[in-house]
Amino acid sequence: MKVTVEVDCSPQEARAFLGLPDVAGLNDHMVQEMKKRLDANMAMVAPEELLRSWMTFGGQATEQFRKLMTAATSGAQGLKPGG
């Protein structure tokens, strides 16, 4: 024997019937918080801002690499063969 039961209810009614908590308020709060954070970070995604931050980092990295190479070559010049 096969029995089919079809229930016509909204998601809220199904949650209440099954005893699940209503998370609509929490969901709304989370969505609003995510929107605020996205809006705050959108300026960082602008091409001008990305390029500016990359160039700043690139300049510092280039300078650090130059200092490292200078220190390595000056240290290597101070070594004596066989010593």
Number of helical segments with 4 or more residues: 3
Taken from the alpha-carbon principal axes, the silhouette is elongated
Mean pLDDT, all residues: 80
**Biggest sheet character:** none
Order of helices and strands: HHH
- Termini separation comes to 95 Å
Chart the SSEs and their pairings.
Layout (H helix, E strand, L loop, with lengths): L10 H8 L5 H22 L1 H32 L5
Brief overview, please?
With 83 residues, this protein is an all-alpha fold.
Keywords:
mainly alpha; 2 domains; 3 helices; elongated
Write structural notes for this entry.
The chain has 83 residues and is mostly helical. The chain has 2 domains: 10-45, no CATH class; 51-76. 75% of the residues lie in helices and 0% in strands. The chain contains 3 helices and no strands. The protein has helices at residues 11-18, 24-45, 47-78. The longest helix is centred in the C-terminal third of the chain and has 32 residues, at 47-78. It starts with 10 loop residues before the first helix and ends in a 5-residue tail after the last helix. The mean pLDDT is 80.
